[in-house]
Amino acid sequence: MFNNLSDKLDKALHVLKGHGSITEVNVAETLKEVRRALLDADVNFKIAKQFTNKVKEKALGQNVLTTLQPGQLMVKIVKDELTELMGGDAEGINLSGNPSVILMSGLQGSGKTTFSGKLANYLKNKKTKKPLLVACDVYRPAAIDQLHVVGDQINVEVYSDKDNNDPVAIAKAGVAYAKANGFNVVIIDTAGRLAVDEAMMTEISNIHKAIQPQETLFVVDSMTGQDAVNTAKAFNDILNFDGVILTKLDGDTRGGAAISIKSVVNKPIKFIGTGEKMEAIDVFYPSRMADRILG
Ligand code: GDP
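Above: the input record for the complex with guanosine-5'-diphosphate. Below: its predicted structure, written as tokens.
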């Protein structure tokens, strides 16, 4: 994960570690390299600049130039700032409703259906939760079948209605079915399109209004870099979602989405997807991710 970024940051900070005494020039040079590494990882230019400015401010504030181990202090400052940028403390999902309704949103192919299954499985394993999956993609019958395949794999019931082409009605019926049958979590998988368009936004917004979920999650493919951030912005404007799910972190992703998304939409990343299997789900901990990035 993020190998390229990790290597570059390591090299950037290595310069400082090698020096007995550190000058302002060394610090400036290091921060330039750090910024370059972030830009290469597809972090937005403004965010990368703000980031290095903050690190610089902190470094000078903490007298990095006169400390005994300036390299280590710089690494710590970079790590703390990275953690802050990615979200600070980890946040859970709101399961206060009965049933708790969780709405999944995102583009087609982002990993919504897969993640819906992963989340259902994750919650089911918590013993006190009995999840129901609801298939609201009325445009692609294959999407409904896919959710059934996922449901069978994890032994979770799937509510669908292939004769109904109104996603709002299906979502409502799914919640009613959950109430009537003792499910305490409802995960609603919705249709996405290949790019943000008005019809998709209107539809997801209508579902959102109709069912008033406790938790609205935005699922995004971490391989899509700055596009991921732009898509997140568009969905957040419409849905004011509660959290982000970053998928495909097992792939060759450069890291830009993970690093930038929180500060652009001001919503936490809650879970990550790290593979196609139902078990490939992890709670997102910004500090652990920063540790991983900095090696
Ligand atoms: P949806 O259109 O948003 O419902 O996306 P899908 O759940 O159908 O996922 C699209 C593709 O991405 C499928 O082939 C999934 O197996 C794959 N996928 C989803 N999440 C992950 C992940 O975390 N890692 C990897 N490697 N593949 C994933």
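Notes for the reader.
The chain has eleven helices and eight strands.
The CA atoms of residues 167 and 203 lie 8 Å apart.
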